[in-house]
Amino acid sequence: MRKDDKVDYRIMIIEDDRAVRRILAGIIENYDLGEVIAEAEDGDEAEKKLISLNPDIALIDLLLPKKDGIEVIKKVRARGLDTYFIMISQVEAQNMISKAYEAGIEFFIHKPVNATETVSVLSKVGEMIRLKRALEMIKETVSGTLNENGNKKEVRRTEKLDYILAELGILGDAGSEDIKVLIENYDVVKKNTANLQELYTFLKDYYEKAGIKKSSDIKAIEMRIRRAINKAMDNVALMGLEDYHGEQFMRYAPVLFDFKEVKKQMDFLRKKTQEGGKINMRKFLEGLAFLSKA
């Protein structure tokens, strides 16, 4: 819905503290960030209203009565809801933050709530929605061609995958091409490979059958992928050093890596330790497959 050429986002606030709900609603109204269409104070009420109203954005507390925020998000995601979720919490535990991102949140707003952070986060989510809508319009324009070739889903996932690899700073690396093949065929890879050796063998067979002029030596494939993922961890650790609560760091660190290993890498870069963090290739690939879903 547009008003004076400005998108008016439909926002829902889910928070058991009435005072916090009032603060958030006031910020949204005062900074013209959207329209608050509903509020909820517990998980059960939130789930029902989310499914019924399908808001563009939902601000949701992590710790709610009856059903916590992560459980609510998982429930409504399973119903196909495409709402953008922003988690409100004072929780600092990285395992909880990781679970929240895996459930499908976009950003965190830390308690106590302040206007600067709230405006910044809502503005970023608004930009994401505008970009998504613009991309959908473009895709609709070319959907006939894509459907005819049977490539629509693959193209969408590839575009998002390229974006993530670029943010990780490894898009141009030799190993990133191996990683892209694995993620674009991830359902087959996950079903047919029980260990890393079989994963490298899958790539070897893929290149040979496709006639791709790329080294299909098992050891060369392994080294290319390891170098790329190690570089990605290095770049994510640098993100953490620059802004520990930054959205890029909080999105990638717990989903693609073991968080304690990222912290080790941060300490290594600070020269506090002589040993950096170690990568978990399976976790990286599973996390990347999750993040790159269309």
TrEMBL record:
Kindly give the SUPFAM superfamilies that the UniProt entry links to this protein: CheY-like
Domain (Response regulatory): give its ranges: 10-126
Q: Which UniProt keywords apply?
A: Phosphoprotein
Q: Which residues are annotated with the PTM 4-aspartylphosphate?
A: D61
**Pfam families given for it?**
Response_reg, YcbB
Query: This protein's superkingdom?
Result: Bacteria
- InterPro entries assigned to the protein according to its UniProt record, in alphabetical order: CheY-like_superfamily (IPR011006), Sig_transdc_resp-reg_receiver (IPR001789), ST_Response_Regulator (IPR052048), YcbB (IPR013972)
A biological process term (GO) from this entry? phosphorelay signal transduction system
The record's function comment reads: May play the central regulatory role in sporulation. It may be an element of the effector pathway responsible for the activation of sporulation genes in response to nutritional stress. Spo0A may act in concert with spo0H (a sigma factor) to control the expression of some genes that are critical to the sporulation process.
Question: Any idea what this protein is called?
Answer: Stage 0 sporulation protein A homolog
Organism from which the protein derives: Caldanaerovirga acetigignens
Lineage of the source organism? Bacteria, Bacillati, Bacillota, Clostridia, Thermosediminibacterales
